[in-house]
Specification:
The complex is a heterodimer of chains A (about 170) and B (about 290). In chain A, strand 4 and strand 5 form a beta hairpin. Chain A has 5 helices and 7 strands. In chain A, the strands form 2 sheets. In chain A, strands 6-5-4-1-7 form a 5-stranded antiparallel beta sheet. In chain A, about 30% of the residues lie in helices and about 20% in strands. The longest helix of chain A has 19 residues. With about 170 residues, chain A is of the alpha+beta class. Chain B contains 12 helices and 3 strands, in the order H-H-H-E-E-E-H-H-H-H-H-H-H-H-H. Chain B has one domain. Chain B has about 290 residues and is mainly α. In chain B, helix 10 runs antiparallel to helix 12. In chain B, strands 1-3-2 form a 3-stranded mixed beta sheet. Classes of the chains: A alpha+beta (about 170), B mainly alpha (about 290). At the A-B interface, helix 1, helix 2, helix 3, helix 4 and helix 5 of A face helix 2, helix 3, strand 1, helix 8 and helix 9 of B.
């Protein structure tokens, strides 16, 4: 019985991460990187992909994506791939175009077509202090000990990980 | 009778051995904790010294908290909390757990989800952290929430916004911020201005990259899948590109650049870690 439960658990755990990536989703390499046989950085290389190479994403495992490309199939670091097909969507300048398309341009404000207001700089500048809301926010405080219990419930285990060095320092 | 007495004795001996070993461990732990605290204190005072030598004001933790509280109140004036107690409590649980993995585990950390469709997250000094409903709705599991909150925790831990305030010339240098005054704390209000502009101020790009690097580490320390934040960045990068992300894109480097930098910094160091994403426990909002 326990073994059966364990099996079900393993299957469930194995299935969960996959559901987050739509299998067959496409992606583009944002930097040159090695395609690996296994999802580990010391695994052997299958081939190397260049910036701009297209891939089809098959599944996910931690920080790795299993992909198919013209240069072979294997595991690629998630962080070397931009998911989706449309390039350059993530640039700030493009937002004006989106505003035009949605008929919101020109007014400088979000028109209440959706009934939901955005949070722009003007609104933030004009914001008035709300003591009641601060008190509300503070009423939900979690103590360190409560957080510990919450973590234990989720079977979260503390791991020793050093801070990463950056170029800026 | 004899037999059971022997067993009791054996048990006692075993117990005392174990407790000796345990107390030894405790001593070691305490020593390690003291050392860590010393290191932490000297790092903080180093920061303060640097601030002072640059002609800036070093704020006490209480002053920092008072500043943060005022900013939080202003932000909440623009967008109130989502009226969902379970959600707010859940976010505080996750947030406090990742904050506990930082070098400021005992700040009065507060987390919240604010009611706007905008996709963004904000940090104010002293540990007041808010994510928008728009961003929360994009998340798929608890590790992604942990990653987003940990990024903001990183800003607070490294005092990124506080440094901006320290550089501002609005407040008189000798002033005591915690002075009680009728009608609220005017000095703090003078310092931060009336609105919540400070939370929408673009930080140095380097501060954003630093917060990203801290975020993956804090999440991993807390037992989460380290790639929660990168996953959210990918989603933002290829997802909606309308007014809801305008402010985020204006004040942060593009997601692609953040992902590429993170990839370089992480460089396979997280491959062997076992982290949880906790998709089933993740609290989903109705709207």
């Amino acid at each position: 019985m326990i073994r059966l439960l364990r099996c079900i658990q393993i299957v469930l755990v194995a299935l969960l991460p996959i559901s987050l990536v739509h299998a067959g989703e496409s992606g583009t390499m944002i930097k040159a990187d090695e395609l690996k046989a296994e999802p580990f950085h010391d695994s052997k290389s299958v081939s190397s992909l260049a910036v701009g190479d297209k891939v089809i994403i098959l599944k996910k495992d931690g920080g790795w994506l299993k992909v198919k490309s013209d240069k072979g199939s294997g595991w690629m670091r998630m962080l070397s791939i931009r998911r989706g097909t449309v390039a350059g969507k993530a640039t700030a300048g493009a937002s004006g175009l989106a505003s035009l398309a949605s008929g919101r341009a020109g007014t400088g404000k979000v028109v209440a077509t959706t009934g939901i207001r955005g949070l722009n700089e003007e609104e933030l500048k004009a914001a008035k202090y709300d003591e009641d809301e601060v008190k509300q926010a503070e009423s939900f405080v979690t103590t360190r000990a409560e957080a510990q219990k919450f973590a234990a419930k989720g079977k979260l285990k503390v791991q020793q990980v050093d801070y990463l060095a950056g170029e800026e320092k | 009778m004899k037999y059971s007495a022997g067993r009791v004795l054996f048990g006692l001996a075993l117990w005392s051995c174990m407790s000796a070993a345990f107390s030894l461990n405790l001593d070691e732990l305490k020593r390690a904790a003291d050392e860590l605290k010393q290191k932490r204190d000297s790092a903080t005072s180093e920061l303060d010294k640097k601030a002072k030598s640059a002609g800036l004001i070093a704020y006490s933790d209480q002053e920092e908290a008072a500043i943060g509280r005022q900013i939080a109140g202003n932000l909440l004036g623009a967008a109130p909390l989502v009226k969902d107690k379970q959600l707010q409590k859940y976010v505080n649980n996750v947030g406090r757990w990742v904050a506990s993995q930082s070098e400021r585990p005992d700040l009065a950390w507060h987390f919240g989800v604010i009611d706007t469709a905008d996709i963004n997250a904000f940090a104010a000094p002293g540990g007041y952290i808010f994510v928008t409903r728009g961003l929360y709705r994009m998340l798929n599991d608890e590790s992604e929430l942990a990653g987003v909150l940990a990024h903001e925790v990183g800003h607070v831990v490294r005092k990124h916004h506080l440094k901006i305030l320290q550089q501002s010339q609005v407040v008189d240098q000798g002033g005591n911020l915690l002075e009680k005054q009728a009608g609220g704390n005017e000095k703090i209000r003078n310092l931060i201005g009336n609105g919540a502009e400070i939370v929408a101020r673009a930080l140095d790009k380097s501060a954003e990259f630093e917060a990203d690097r801290i975020a993956v580490v804090l999440a991993a320390r807390g037992g989460y899948e380290a790639y929660g934040l990168p996953q959210v960045l990918q989603e933002i990068g290829h997802g909606a590109n309308d007014d809801s992300v305008a402010l985020l894109f204006k004040t942060h480097p593009p997601p692609d650049e953040r992902l590429a930098r993170l990839g370089d910094a992480m460089d396979g160091r997280f491959d062997k870690l076992q982290g949880k994403s906790l998709a089933t426990r993740f609290y989903r909002v109705k709207q």
